[in-house]
Amino acid sequence: MSNTTTTTTKTTDKDSNDNKPVIGLSGRNIVYDKDGKPCRTCNTLLDFQFAMGKKPVIPHEPKEVKKEKLSGYTKDYPPDVSELGKSSWTLLHSIAATYPENPTDQQQKDLKQFINLFSGFYPCWYCGEDFKIYIKKNEIETKNQDLFGKWLCNAHNEVNKKLNKPVFNCELWKKRWKDGWDEEE
Amino acid sequence: MSNTTTTTTKTTDKDSNDNKPVIGLSGRNIVYDKDGKPCRTCNTLLDFQFAMGKKPVIPHEPKEVKKEKLSGYTKDYPPDVSELGKSSWTLLHSIAATYPENPTDQQQKDLKQFINLFSGFYPCWYCGEDFKIYIKKNEIETKNQDLFGKWLCNAHNEVNKKLNKPVFNCELWKKRWKDGWDEEE
């Protein structure tokens, strides 16, 4: 199961047989749903459009493409894997920042359940599967706010490593997600 | 209980007695936590800093203030109420977009539980309370993807109305959150 954590296993045999693209314009592997269609919530918008055979959005003109007005609201595209990831980490770390310092047993049970359900409903299916594997190997720490905040920070760093992004110093998680930075820092 | 949905009840008696600001620089009411401190996840960053008596971030120079580098990662501020809202709707609508067309009883039960837990853990406490009231009055529709997507779209519109934002035509929720817009639209 741990093989699913590498990006090279995200395409299925069916895809290569069908001559579907394996690498996207971003350089990432294209991820397909189990039915063989490109997965919208697992790829960047650019790669998704490329895999769908559509004219890709040119990165330096996103505003024209994304923000056309339609009867009062913007005609935004569904979020891609990056926007979805950023949004979800924002919510989860903020939940950590407001989780009680001394939670009750019920609050701890609820938080575990919430995180488990989150991993099941996460819209990028392979990301959710990776998260489930992480949870299995690293039990969710719910005893207090700081422990949960650090557990989540470590989980986020695992993803950062996979995406070749810098890892965060988890000792500083409260500055980033709860209290803010001191002015002199 | 429905009174808690108006912004004027978001300050406590204690706040006005202590001479704490009631209106923020954004024009919104300042929201305080139950212990009387300004609530970081319930206010805009500008209003939170104002209520804390700190030099406010000047809107046209956010990059200098928010994006200083610190040992490899950016020194971002904790998300304010707007960023948190946008992020959370992005996650929830994407969950609707990938929720099964024909969910099992267990999936329906799990989704209800997830949404209920979400309302309890939501980092902006008064937003979470408003959402709980909405859920009580409007039972979560989990029978299929389209019903859940529309239920969520209506819930989002309730918040849009409170914030004087345009409401979205829920018949189009799949274009915004699942399939994207046709090129000729």
From TrEMBL, chains A, B:
<dbReference type="InterPro" id="IPR039799">
    <property type="entry name" value="ALR/ERV"/>
</dbReference>
<keyword id="KW-0285">Flavoprotein</keyword>
<protein>
    <recommendedName>
        <fullName>Sulfhydryl oxidase</fullName>
        <ecNumber>1.8.3.2</ecNumber>
    </recommendedName>
</protein>
<dbReference type="InterPro" id="IPR017905">
    <property type="entry name" value="ERV/ALR_sulphydryl_oxidase"/>
</dbReference>
<keyword id="KW-0274">FAD</keyword>
<dbReference type="GO" id="GO:0005758">
    <property type="term" value="C:mitochondrial intermembrane space"/>
</dbReference>
<keyword id="KW-0560">Oxidoreductase</keyword>
<feature type="region of interest" description="Disordered">
    <location>
        <begin position="1"/>
        <end position="24"/>
    </location>
</feature>
<dbReference type="GO" id="GO:0050660">
    <property type="term" value="F:flavin adenine dinucleotide binding"/>
</dbReference>
<keyword id="KW-0496">Mitochondrion</keyword>
<feature type="compositionally biased region" description="Low complexity">
    <location>
        <begin position="1"/>
        <end position="10"/>
    </location>
</feature>
<feature type="domain" description="ERV/ALR sulfhydryl oxidase">
    <location>
        <begin position="77"/>
        <end position="177"/>
    </location>
</feature>
<keyword id="KW-1015">Disulfide bond</keyword>
<dbReference type="InterPro" id="IPR036774">
    <property type="entry name" value="ERV/ALR_sulphydryl_oxid_sf"/>
</dbReference>
<dbReference type="Pfam" id="PF04777">
    <property type="entry name" value="Evr1_Alr"/>
</dbReference>
<dbReference type="GO" id="GO:0016971">
    <property type="term" value="F:flavin-dependent sulfhydryl oxidase activity"/>
</dbReference>
